[in-house]
Amino acid sequence: MRREASVLHLDLDAFFAAVEQRDKPSLRGRPVVVGGVGGRGVVATASYEARVFGVRSAMSTREARARCPHAAFLSGRFHAYRTASRQVMAVLRDLSPLVEPLSLDEAFVDLAAADLPDLGVETVTAVARDLRAAVQEATGGLTATVGVATSKFMAKIASDLDKPDGLTVVAPGTEQDLLRPMPVAVIPGVGPATAERLRASGFRTVADLEQASEAEVVRLLGKAHGHGLHRLAHGLDDRPVVAEREAKSISVEDTYAEDVTDRTTMEGLLTRQAATVARRLAKARQSGRTVTIKVRLHDFTTSSRSQTLDAPTDHPQVIARTARALLGEVDTTGGVRLLGVGVSGLADWIQESLFGDEHDEEEPLTELPLAETSRRPAWAPGADVVHSEHGPGWVWGSGRGVVTVRFETAETGPGPVRSFAVDDPALVLLDPGRHEESDDSPADNPSP
């Protein structure tokens, strides 16, 4: 722990839903649910208007519809969320060079590295207040809740106390007074199973855990877990704010708002992505040792798997074979909505085989039906569209050969609603986030 409250945690409020409300004036002040819209869908984020009805993240869309049938259920627009996130991170980096993003919608900031006159409570409170205003201005109205304290743990606790659009500064020396009455589940690493184990042993609050000996907690939870929880129960956390490291990589990813469920199709898509990455590596006269795949499941859970090779490569078959093997480590039973392949650990040379053997024969690209290679479904709820006569808008709904569009943008008031045939050539689906390639950029880690 530090002597001054110099660790700031910022958390954007109901991020995905807030971006949708910002960009769709007719949804402002209304319940909005972002996530899977189908029968197996899962809620990624619910607006505060929807939370009043008990809708929450990770709830099935079916239950969410039952609780709040009048909500707008949208499939999500990750390109818009990434853009807003980058705007926020830029504001944070203007304040301090030490910014540690945790996901698209939250980050730690080290105020001790900022150019501040002092780190007194009044100063950091004013800085945090100005920061929230700067975020709102940079993003066109998104709000954030901020906590400031002497450690990462306490700053995260503080940012949860006054949601949405709040600010809490924990003065040095008051940490334990704040923590003691709280349930043990506020401590990172205490999930439902651990909380139940602690409850069964008589530990319901942080104060209960604080009064226990470390040996007792270790016996209950194991050495590593028990030691860490015991320290946090005493408010002890000396983890530094680690600035985001530049991840030198070349990658490509595709988003599919209709779940891809066939394993052969997934492997074929990865093979095509690997070929794209290999072409870009060759064009840059580079190679890489670490192959990574990114998989976003039907419920918005995102996983990544990596393998480091013995030597750098730019060969599409090597990258593809490694990517397909990594896919076998991910449970994709429920289907996937995003796949990506990347190569990092870049070098400007390729080590030849020690035994001089040739690469495997070229593997033909899997022949995929057109519907599989462009799995973004036509007219997903909330998707951006443009009409040659009426201009930009978004998909209100579709079915039976008809798509209904509300024509409005973030800069307009609520717009009119009109319906068209799904094959109307004047109506075009915009999808800037479906196929993305990146250099030197870390993978997104959305935390809805």
Automatic annotation (TrEMBL):
Enzyme active site: E106
Keywords: Cytoplasm, DNA damage, DNA repair, DNA replication, DNA-binding, DNA-directed DNA polymerase, Magnesium, Metal-binding, Mutator protein, Nucleotidyltransferase, Transferase
Cytoplasm listed as a keyword: yes
Annotated site location: Substrate discrimination: F16
Protein origin, superkingdom: Bacteria
Details of cofactor binding: Binds 2 magnesium ions per subunit.
Database matches in SUPFAM superfamilies: DNA/RNA polymerases, Lesion bypass DNA polymerase (Y-family), little finger domain
GO MF entries: DNA-directed DNA polymerase activity
Main location: cytoplasm
Keyword Chaperone (UniProt): no
Pfam families: IMS (PF00817), IMS_C (PF11799), IMS_HHH_1 (PF21999)
Requisite cofactors: Mg(2+)
Coiled-coil ranges from the UniProt annotation: none
Membership in a protein family: Belongs to the DNA polymerase type-Y family.
Function: Poorly processive, error-prone DNA polymerase involved in untargeted mutagenesis. Copies undamaged DNA at stalled replication forks, which arise in vivo from mismatched or misaligned primer ends. These misaligned primers can be extended by PolIV. Exhibits no 3'-5' exonuclease (proofreading) activity. May be involved in translesional synthesis, in conjunction with the beta clamp from PolIII.
PANTHER family: DNA POLYMERASE KAPPA, DNA REPAIR POLYMERASE UMUC / TRANSFERASE FAMILY MEMBER
Name recorded for this polypeptide: DNA polymerase IV
Encoding gene (name): dinB
